[in-house]
Write a structure and sequence with these properties.
70% of the residues lie in helices and 0% in strands. The protein has two domains: 18-144, AGR C 984p-like (AGR_C_984p-like, Orthogonal Bundle); 146-254, no CATH class. By secondary structure, it is an all-alpha fold. The protein has 14 helices and no strands. The longest helix is centred in the C-terminal third of the chain and has 34 residues, at 227-260.
Length: 262
């Protein structure tokens, strides 16, 4: 599988990626491996009656996990089965206790706890394949530039958030429970992931809201659901990331000069 060649990093690379993303997605969809797996998923997912059956089929499971950015969990079949079988209505069930809410999104999409009606519904296969291709674009971009992958992920996730009628507090907690999206907010707000993550969750949310109001003039999460708000968040994140990478490179260069001068 080929990588996505950006040629540029930071905001300049982001502008290029936005202009070419439709072409890049089509290229990925036409990739022989992706095309075969996508067709297999569409043709067979409605036949899978249970979570146990899904995890036994590697090709189906790889598309299902890939659609939620969980492709790295492909070897954890027993765990994934428990996630898919969790009672979504029980706050104490496994999936509701996991801090990474991508697992909850996976379980909600398949809803095997209620049977197989969801996977047999019209358009389910097409919807998941579309998500899979979006994520595959992000993954390949990440092979070249991880910051750009996170920016793409944030763009997609925030568009989904914007469609939901959910309390602001809930959405902020979901950001904290979504590792890729959280990294973009932390980066844009100037928080250190290593130290910020050690603060109690309630305090993290308060700090996020305070920084959002200071930088964007709005505490409500709906500000990030607009094209303007999302774009400002992503561009701020990419600019800060580029500065940090430049600082790291400069520090490494300075250290090398020090060693050579001894």
């Amino acid at each position: 599988m080929s990588q996505i060649a950006l040629g540029l990093g930071g905001i300049a690379g982001w502008n290029v990626l936005k202009r070419t993303s439709a072409q890049q997605k089509q290229m990925i969809a036409n990739d022989p491996t992706v095309s075969r797996n996508s067709a297999y998923f569409r043709e067979n997912i409605a036949k899978v009656q249970s979570a146990g059956d899904l995890v036994k089929d590697y090709r189906l499971l790889s598309v299902a996990l890939g659609a939620f950015g969980l492709e790295g969990e492909i070897g954890s079949k027993a765990f994934i089965q428990k996630v898919l079988e969790s009672d979504l209505s029980d706050k104490q069930s496994l999936v509701n206790r996991l801090s990474d809410k991508r697992f909850l999104n996976l379980a909600e999409a398949f809803n095997y706890n209620e049977g197989a009606d969801e996977v047999q519904s019209q358009g389910f296969g097409d919807k998941l394949v579309s998500q899979f291709i979006d994520r595959e674009l992000e993954r390949r971009v990440g092979q070249t530039d991880e910051s750009m992958r996170l920016a793409l992920n944030a763009q997609r996730e925030l568009a989904i958030f914007a469609e939901r009628d959910t309390k602001d507090t809930t959405l902020w907690y979901e950001v904290l429970g979504n590792p890729p999206l959280r990294r973009v907010f932390e980066g844009a707000f100037g928080f250190s992931s290593s130290s910020f993550g050690k603060i109690p969750v309630e305090r993290q949310m308060t700090m996020m809201k305070d920084r959002a109001e200071r930088m964007f003039g709005s505490e409500p999460f709906k500000a990030f659901g607009t094209e303007e708000g999302m774009e400002k968040l992503v561009r701020t994140y990419l600019a800060r990331s580029q500065l940090q990478e430049g600082s790291t490179a400069q520090n490494a260069y300075s250290a090398a000069l020090t060693l050579l001068s001894r």
